[in-house]
Amino acid sequence: MHLLNAWREAPVYTERERAALGWIEAITLVTQGHVPDEAFEAVRQQFSEKEIVDLTAAAIAINSWNRIAIAFRVPPQVESKKAAALGAIKPRECGESVAGALPRGCQGQRKVTSYVKK
């Protein structure tokens, strides 16, 4: 996970993984032009038609969730108490909403603490 931003340079990814990452990046950035033929050919060499459809559908779903979260200004949810202990996040009490939604785990509860990034 830590090397995803450097997937082209990092030697740990297989050709199949690189094809998937290239394809996902291309369809994610489709508004900047089009899906390059190279990305399509690479994914076709590594995956069946069904696998390409499944990969594409998963990427579109995740992109949609991200766009919704960005549009509604939803902060990243961090559920790790260890991260909170290290000061990476601060606690938020139930009842405080973000974009009209209660923090995860707070529906129907009171005084349950969730965590958000500082």
Describe the structure.
The protein is mostly helical and 118 residues long. It has two domains: 4-71, Up-down Bundle (AhpD-like), CATH 1.20.1290; 81-117, no CATH class. It has four helices and two strands; from the N terminus they run ααααββ. It has helices spanning 15-28, 37-46, 49-71, 81-85, and strands at residues 89-93, 113-117. A two-stranded antiparallel ribbon has the order 1-2. Helix 1 (15-28) crosses helix 2 (37-46) and helix 1 packs across helix 3 (49-71). The chain is globular and about 45 Å long. The chain starts with 14 loop residues before the first helix and ends with a strand. The model is unreliable at 96-102 and 107-118 (pLDDT under 50).
What brief labels describe this structure?
118 residues; mainly alpha; AhpD-like; two-stranded antiparallel ribbon; 4 helices; globular; disordered C terminus
| Total discrete domains | 2
As laid out across the biggest beta sheet, the strand order is 1-2
Low-confidence parts lasting 5 or more residues at pLDDT below 50?
Answer: 96-102, 107-118
Total strands: the figure is 2
Q: Strand share of the residues?
A: 5-15%
Question: How does CATH name the architecture of the largest domain?
Answer: Up-down Bundle
Shape, please?
Answer: globular
Layout of SSEs?
Layout: H1 15-28, H2 37-46, H3 49-71, H4 81-85, E1 89-93, E2 113-117
Antiparallel strand pairs: 1-2
Helix pairs in contact: 1-2, 1-3
Quick overview:
This protein is mainly alpha-helical and 118 residues long.
